[in-house]
Structure formats: structure tokens, C-alpha cells
Design goal:
2 copies of one chain form a homodimer. Chain A is of the alpha/beta class. Chain A has helices at 128-142, 155-166, 185-199, 202-205, 211-225, 228-234, 253-266, 271-283, 294-298, 318-330, 354-365; strands spanning 9-10, 13-17, 21-22, 28-29, 32-39, 49-53, 65-66, 69-73, 80-81, 86-87, 92-96, 111-112, 117-118, 149-153, 173-177, 304-310, 335-340. Helix content of chain A is 34%, strand content 18%. In chain A, strands 2-5-11-6-14-15-16-17 form an 8-stranded mixed sheet, sandwiched between helices. In chain A, strands 1-7-8 form a 3-stranded mixed sheet, with no helix packed on it. The first copy, chain A, has a two-stranded antiparallel sheet with strand order 3-4. In chain A, helix 3 (185-199) packs antiparallel against helix 8. Chain A is globular. In chain A, 54% of the residues are buried. Chains A and B meet through helix 3, helix 5, helix 6, helix 7 and helix 8 of A and helix 3, helix 5, helix 6, helix 7 and helix 8 of B.
Chain lengths: 369, 369
């Protein structure tokens, strides 16, 4: 199957920001760069812009493909393009790689100006709030005073929501998909095992690429991205060789899948970025500043909300999305909620599902540009 | 809190079996030893014996304490003893360490007679069926033709059930607790990540103790043993230092708990045993021999069944226990089923819960000796 991007060839861009940025950790970052892409055209009023925020391992290449590499299609291409739910005929779409990322924005692989060497593990820990501050600078640079909408799935949905709290005047709609208002102890526990896999890898300790640790972290991640039902449908107890081999090579197909996903990821993703993305997830908790009262935290938002969850998502279950909805309802804020039947667990937000896409498209049709 | 064992001081015993045992893997084991303990008195007819089967990291020290180490109380002491549900005034209780274990029975740490050196990673993979065969030899040796009951939780419950299929004449009651008729793809996936943590640990590759891998495997295991609710109650998002430290040391209490559990386990458990226990779980699937028809597989059983599950167990959810119950009901076999409300997830089967223990006690009161 050849994927055809909706929008055609696109180009990655970079912006440098020289003013220093004070992070929540207390570290002062002396300027930074953001890699980003844009699709569609910003209107004269600058009022038709949508910010797409990425999840754990995402980046700025949201849609389209690169002219010199047609197979490199953006991670959310199925929802962005002419006539697609994030319609580039109406909207100016912005995707970026977050601070601390490993796709071109300032992060662990960047040179630390204080030492002239790559930051590596000394790169500061960044939070969702820090990302929003950095994204706000990009918005300034692009001439966007107010986003028509912020949108994202999972960790991306947390950013879409945080925008409404941190810069209430700068966002009219927030689309918060497959997200949660904060991680549960179990969510943190999974992140911690993934981090320990990397941190305890002797290669990491020795300053080398922790391929083993990254591989384990990704294998574990994949279990939480899929649903039990989906794994049952996709693999069940199917054997690679049709019989037991009584050894530790691949026997069940699900083992093969996990090893493949782990190996693929470990070959390219930056471990220091991975560690930081999971910490940003752990820390995210906008209600904390209001004594744990999510409604109080969201009360300052002026945006309208679209919240969506997926029936088989057990990483951030529908109940977690309903916490957000209930807080907004309590405040009599404007919120639309869709609980979508889907086989694909947490990954559903990335999938091309007609009902899901129709719901997003319908909501965005009502967003004025 | 000082734990007081119900039955007092007990002693571990060993039996050697010189006749070779052909394993399901095809390997012929030239004799083996089993470590075991017994509590109570076998009656003259040999008709009051109960076999307690252990789970992943369990062993033969089920109840009581050792005279020279009063703190070493058996892992299921709360349910075994005079007047307890597994009443040692009525029953003769047998607990053993399974073949391949690391608590005294023949396993990876034992000497391979063919080489004169410890088996280590060359120890064959053992299955639940192999364990039942070995347990049957122990029963022969102890003068037990027929168990009054076999009982166990989790992987132990699988053994309790497998007895009724493999030796239908030799068991009158099977108590199958917090178990499943086979692992799901997701269950296998978790086992596979744990195995890969061990197998890819450079210390394991180099023939040393894979402390890091065992630690990760156990941390991951603990997430699946607890329930999301229980983790929320026990840890929530509570911080170790009351504030974020923006580093990779322990920040959330749940991280501290997992690291502690991982470190403790990695200090003593045998990696080659751990690898084999997870494979025994993966392989277990009595229905497979009947084309996936569990009812057909159980039709040969002559035992009466007691099946119990726990509301918050997501490793082997109540739905998995109901698969067993439904198969037995389809066959019009005798089965009692209890779905017990509990906070403690999969670990509930080990907990002292008044309702749970009352249900087990009531069932066992009806078991003739």
C-alpha cells in the first residue's frame, strides 16, 4: 500500500529565538531553535491558525511528504490536508518539534553554548508549560495572536488543554483527544520502568547509545498503546513456527511484533529526549496549582472545548477524558464530548477512522476563521 | 507488626526421584529433587491431602516459620493452619517448589550430571504439564493416591486445574483462584518484555547475575499485580520530597515503591528460573489439544471445581475465570464460582480478606477427608 499524502510536498523550517527562556526547573535557556512545518495559508487577520501538538515520540512533520523522500509522510497526514478534517483550504496548520525533542528543535543533541559540546544528559528537564511558552514565541514570530484551535492526542492533548489555561486569550478552541488531566500512579509507574530501562543500561551509564534500554522502553510502551482486544485480534496466541520450540527466540507472533517495534525505535530515537518526554507527562497536572481542583484550574480558560476518547484506550481511558468534561461542565464552559468506539486502544487517535474523523471535521467546520 | 504463623515451626524437606522424567520439550531429565513442606497429618486412608501449587516466584514454604528464622513466614500462611481455611486440623497440606525453581528443587542452579557443573541457562524449559508429572511422583512417594484438593492462585491455579485433566482420577476438588485458561496476547507481551530485560542485560550475556534485568522484570511485574485503583489509593501522585526536583531520582512515591521491589527481588531470585516460569505461563493452554475447545479439554476431569476471581484483577480478570466456569457449566460439571470484591488487583489471592477466606473455608468444609 502506497500512502499518498493529502497536501503533497512540504518543507521543514526552523526559527531561532535569541531571548532566553526560563524553564519551570529554574534553568535559564539562552535562546533556542524550533523545527516546524506549516500547511495552508495564514489569512490576513491571522485568525485561521491551528496548532498541532505532538505526543511522546512525535515531531513537526505532521502532514505531507518531503520532495526528496516521498515515503516520509507526516504522522497525522490522514487528518490534515485539503478537504480533510484539519482542512488546509481553510486553516493554516502549524506543527512543531517540542523543546527537548530529537527532530531538529533544541534538545539533548544540540550544542550547549556554555560548553561548546552537545548537552546530552545535561539538557534540562522541560515541562508542558515550558513547551507552551516556546510555542507562544513561535506563534508571535508567525504573526498569530490567537490560535483558532490547538489540537493534539495523548501528551499532545495535554498541550492543547494547557494553552487554554496558560494563555487564555490566545486560543479560541482546544481539541483534547485521548488525553487525561494528569497521570495516574499506574501511568507514572509505566513511565518509570521505561526510564529505568534506559538509565540502568550500561551503555547509557558509559555515555553510549542505550539501544537495549530504548528497545525495552518502546516494547513496554507498545503494550500500553494497543488494547487487549486488538492484540487478541491481531496476534492472539499465534505461533511463529506453528509449534513450541522450548527456547527464548520468538515463539508467539506478539513477541515478534514487540521486538520489531523495539528494535526500530531504538535505532533512531534519542534516549535523553525519551526520558524528558516521560517526565513532562508525569509532571503535567494543571489542577495541582488549584489544590487539585481541575474545574478551578480550567475556570480561567476562555476557549471552547472538544474532548474525545476511545473505548479501548486503557492508557488514558474514557473515564479520564470525562474528568476534563465534568470539570468544564461544572464551570458551565462550552464543551463537546465524543466517546468513540474503536479497536485500536490509545493509538486510536492516530488512526483513520471514518466516524472519528467525521466528528473532528464537524467540530472544526464550526470553528470560525 | 509481627506476623505470627498459624502452625508454628515447620521444616523444609527434600525427596530425590531417580527415575528419569521426560519433559514436554523432549529433554529427558535423569532424576530430580523436589523441596517440599507438609503441615497437618495424613490420615490412614491417605484421603485428606491438599496440594498447594505456587505462582511465578513462590515456593514450598507455604505456611509456618522456620525455628531458626521466625520472621521467615510462609507466603500463604494467612490461609493455612489450625482453624484457618486450609485447616491443618483436618487436612494434610503439601507445598512444593516446582521443577526449574530456585528454592531447592532441581533447577538452573542445580548441577547438571552430564557436565558436573550448574545447569544455568542450559536447564530445560519446563511446562505446567511437566510440573504436574513431578508433583504426581511426590504424591506417590508420600502415599497420596488422590488429592482431596489441589489449590493455587494465578500460575498455581493453572496447576490446580491441569491436575484434573492430566490425572483425572487423582483429584477430587480443584480450587482455581485468580487464574485463566490461557494467557492472552497482552499477558504474553508483558512476559516477553520481562524476559527481554533479562536476556538483553549484558551481565546475563556475560554469564553474570543480571541484576538490572531482574529488577526491571520485577518492576514491570508489580504494575500488573496491583490494580490501578490500589496504586491510586496507595501512592496517587504523592511526591517523595513534596516538590518536583526536575531530575531522574525518585520523585513520586510510586517510583520509590517499584525500585524497592525491583531491587529486593533482583538480589535473590534466579534469572534462569524467572525466564522459565514466564515460559510455563505462556505455554499453558489445555484447550489447545482440543482445537481450542476448553469445555472439551475439561470434559475428562472428574473433580469438582471452585473458581474465584477478584474484581480489580486486570492481569487475569474475572472474565478469564468465567471462561473456565462457562466451560464447566457447558459440560454440566460441578463448579462453584466466587467473584470477590477486592482492592488488591491480582495480588488479592495472597491477601487476608475476611470474605475471600470465608468463601474458601466454606467450600473446603464441604470437602470430605
Amino acid at each position: 500500500m502506497t500512502k499518498v499524502s493529502g497536501i503533497g510536498a512540504v518543507e521543514a523550517k526552523r526559527e531561532r529565538f535569541d531571548e532566553s527562556l526560563r524553564l519551570r526547573s529554574g534553568v535559564e535557556l539562552a535562546g533556542f531553535e524550533l523545527a516546524y512545518e506549516t500547511y495552508g495559508t495564514l489569512n490576513a487577520a491571522g485568525s485561521n491558525a491551528i496548532l498541532v501538538c505532538h505526543a511522546l515520540s512525535g515531531h513537526h512533520h505532521v502532514a505531507g511528504h518531503y520532495a526528496d523522500n516521498p515515503k516520509n509522510v507526516g504522522w497525522w497526514d490522514n487528518i490534515v490536508g485539503p478537504g480533510r478534517p484539519l482542512d488546509t483550504d481553510r486553516f493554516f496548520i502549524v506543527g512543531l518539534n517540542n523543546l527537548g525533542g530529537c527532530h531538529g528543535s533544541t534538545g539533548p543533541a544540540s550544542v550547549n553554548p556554555a560548553t561548546g559540546k552537545p548537552w546530552g544528559r545535561d539538557f534540562p528537564i522541560v515541562t508542558v508549560e515550558d513547551w507552551i511558552d516556546a510555542q507562544a514565541r513561535l506563534a508571535d514570530r508567525l504573526g498569530i495572536d490567537q490560535w483558532a484551535a490547538t489540537i493534539g492526542g495523548s501528551l499532545g492533548g495535554m498541550q492543547a488543554m494547557q494553552w487554554t489555561i496558560q494563555y487564555p486569550e490566545r486560543v479560541r478552541h482546544a481539541l483534547v483527544i485521548a488525553a487525561a488531566p494528569r497521570l495516574s500512579a499506574e501511568n507514572i509507574a509505566f513511565n518509570e520502568v521505561a526510564r529505568q530501562a534506559i538509565l540502568s543500561d550500561p551503555d547509557y551509564e558509559a555515555g553510549r547509545r542505550p539501544v537495549r534500554g530504548l528497545r525495552l522502553a518502546r516494547m513496554l510502551g507498545h503494550i500500553t498503546y494497543l488494547s487487549d482486544d486488538q492484540m487478541a485480534d491481531k496476534f492472539g496466541r499465534r505461533l511463529r513456527h506453528g509449534e513450541f520450540r522450548y527456547g527464548f527466540d520468538v515463539e508467539f507472533e506478539v513477541e515478534s511484533y514487540l521486538r520489531y517495534q523495539g528494535d526500530k525505535f531504538a535505532g533512531w530515537f534519542d534516549a535523553d529526549t525519551y526520558l524528558r518526554m516521560t517526565k513532562a507527562l508525569d509532571y503535567f497536572d494543571p489542577a495541582a496549582a488549584c489544590g487539585g481542583d481541575l474545574a478551578a484550574a480550567l475556570a480561567q480558560a476562555k476557549a471552547k472545548f472538544f474532548v474525545a476518547s476511545f473505548s479501548t484506550d486503557w492508557r488514558f481511558s474514557p473515564a479520564r477524558s470525562r474528568e476534563i468534561v465534568n470539570a468544564l461542565v461544572k464551570n458551565r464552559q462550552d464543551v463537546a464530548y465524543a466517546e468513540i468506539e474503536s479497536q485500536h486502544g490509545h493509538d486510536s487517535f492516530l488512526m483513520e477512522d471514518a466516524h472519528y474523523h467525521a466528528v473532528v471535521a464537524a467540530y472544526l467546520k464550526g470553528v470560525k476563521t
